[in-house]
Write a structure and sequence with these properties.
This protein is of the alpha/beta class. It has helices at 4-15, 30-38, 49-58, 76-79, 92-104, 128-136, 138-141, 161-180, 196-201, 211-214, and strands at residues 20-24, 43-46, 64-67, 85-89, 109-116, 146-154, 187-190, 206-209. It has an 8-stranded parallel beta sheet with strand order 7-6-5-4-3-2-1-8. It is globular, with a radius of gyration of 17 Å. The model has no long low-confidence stretch (mean pLDDT 95). Bound molecules: pyridoxal-5'-phosphate. Pyridoxal-5'-phosphate (PLP) is lined by residues 24, 26, 47, 68-69, 154, 192-194, 208-212, 223. The site of pyridoxal-5'-phosphate has 15 residues, from strand 8 and helix 10.
Length: 223
């Protein structure tokens, strides 16, 4: 069962920040997603292509699906027809493939660049420098079927709130710098169940919440 009290509490907290909520429904059943959908929430995030494909077919067509996990280039084609935002673009090659598949589907796919801000080496994403050079590249200007609308970052998995805060702060500063340089960005996706309050205080305008809404996940790996 989804926790609708928690959903509503988070929604009200978000209002003063003018931020959006993505309900992260990976590993959760269609019935659980339906409960949240029936409470009036229509944006969901998923990490696994096959699971997302299945859910997209079986759940209401006005759901906005975000892809938030590591995406392999050879799987882009399965989600390209319907995905509304790919938050986890972590290589230029992936961006090119998204562009190819978007073109085949005669649409433009919105993307966020995932930026590596955590201490852990295992988290995917561009460095600040890589991100900046990609945004300035001629290569990017040729990709007419993607639109980079913002950045996504995940903080370190730690109890140290100062560390988490400083990582979010850095990403917000970078986001502002890119915006000042003329990049047309409007989404800064940062914050999960454990750290979204800090993320909002540091300037996030999109949070991705799984376990606080749907309860713990039971499966092999977290990403
Ligand atoms: C799973 C996941 C989330 C949600 O995590 P919770 O701790 O359950 O809120 C957010 N973002 C990404 C990229 C994820 O993989």
């Amino acid at each position: 069962m989804a926790d609708l009290n928690s959903l509503n509490k988070i929604r009200s907290e978000l209002q003063i920040y003018n931020a959006k909520l993505v309900a992260v429904s990976k590993t959760k059943s269609e019935a659980e997603i339906h409960e949240v959908y029936n409470a009036g929430h229509k944006t969901f995030g998923e990490n696994y292509v096959q699971e997302l494909q299945y859910k997209q077919i079986h759940l209401p067509s006005d759901i906005e699906w975000h892809f938030i996990g590591h995406l392999q280039s050879n799987k882009v084609k399965y989600i390209a027809p319907f995905i509304s935002l790919i938050q986890s673009v972590d290589t230029a090659g992936l961006l090119k493939e998204i562009n190819n598949q978007a073109k085949k589907n005669n649409r433009i796919i919105n993307c966020l660049l995932q930026v590596h801000i955590a201490l852990e080496e295992t988290k995917f994403g561009f460095s600040f420098d890589e991100c900046e050079s990609l945004l300035q590249s001629d290569e990017l200007s040729l990709l007419n079927h993607i639109s980079i609308t913002g950045l996504m970052g995940m903080a370190s998995f730690t109890q140290n709130q100062d560390q988490v805060r400083s990582e979010f702060k850095k990403l917000k500063k970078f986001y502002d710098k890119l915006s000042d340089k003329g990049n047309n960005l409007n989404i800064l996706s940062m914050g999960m169940s454990s750290d979204y309050k800090i993320a909002l205080e540091e300037g996030s305008n999109m949070i991705r919440i799984g376990s606080s809404i749907f309860g713990e996940r039971y499966y092999k790996s977290k990403t």
